[in-house]
Amino acid sequence: MELFTVIISDIIGSRKLNERERHEWQLFLKSSIVQINEKFSDYIEAPFMITKGDEFQGVLKKIGSVHSIVMEFERLIFPLTMRFGVGHGMIQKMGSTIPIEMDGPAFHRAQAALNIAKKKKKVIVIETANEFFNMQVNTIYQLIYAIKERWSDISYNRYWKYQECGTYERVAQEEGVSIQAVWDSLHNSHAMDVIRAEQAIRIILCEQAIQYQQPDNIN
User: Domains in the chain: how many in total?
Assistant: First the structure.
């Protein structure tokens, strides 16, 4: 029995935007979705698409690719912020290859996860059949975003640039600042702690994906 991962997301605070701002971010979001669908096409079962108002969803082949896709959305949509509900389980395709014509436990869990994220003001909530796994990843994400919510634009930009460049020296060279300035910025903002926590998240998600491939672990 094949299992899939559903991501349902919306823009935080979108209803507070005026008509012009709302139109601009919708165009921005559409462009980001196109880029995600192209970049991660090998990992996507049903492409991301806007389903209603400020909400969009997509279906992934494996839970292991969740973090990379969520982080790419976060980068592309910045400075807007998003909420993510992630559900893992079976889906019914009903002969369609688009998410709005699919259903099943993975969709129900994703919607429930998004509702929890809205109620508890979290950025991402993951729901699977494994309660211990849920607690583990959701706790780490909660701590990550407790740090990120204090970041300035500079902190975010250096965090992304460090992940792209890989060294303090290369970031400093690209920005035309000292290596010490980059080091201070990344460590004072706890960005390096976030990066290490996100590396742990990737490992946990990939391990969970491997476990779900084993017949005895399928519910």
Answer: 1
